[in-house]
Amino acid sequence: MANTVSSLKRIRSTERKTAVNRIRRTRLRHQIRTMRRLLEHKDAEGASKAIPATFSLVDRAAKWGIIKKNTAARYKSRLAGRLSKLTPTAA
Q1: Integer CA distances (angstroms), 15 to 2, 18, 21, 62, 89, in order
Q2: What CATH class does 28-86 carry?
Q3: Domain spans of the chain?
Q4: What does the DSSP 8-state code read for residue 65?
Q5: What's the N-to-C CA distance of the chain in angstroms?
């Protein structure tokens, strides 16, 4: 067990940060899951409305260090690619 005041404070702050990061990671997973379900059900309109919120949450998660930058880019690229396959091209 920690003895010094600074190490006890470090334990408390780590517990708070862990709780916040857990909430953020869960929100990110739920948003990506929602987006994937919309894409699976071929709901292009719903997916188009949800994609800005999803991208925003992915970018913020990368900024906070919940996921890495390349992981965020991969998520966004794959979701955008799947959405572009659903939406008809204006020709």
Answers
A1: 14, 5, 10, 21, 49
A2: mainly alpha
A3: 28-86
A4: T
A5: 68
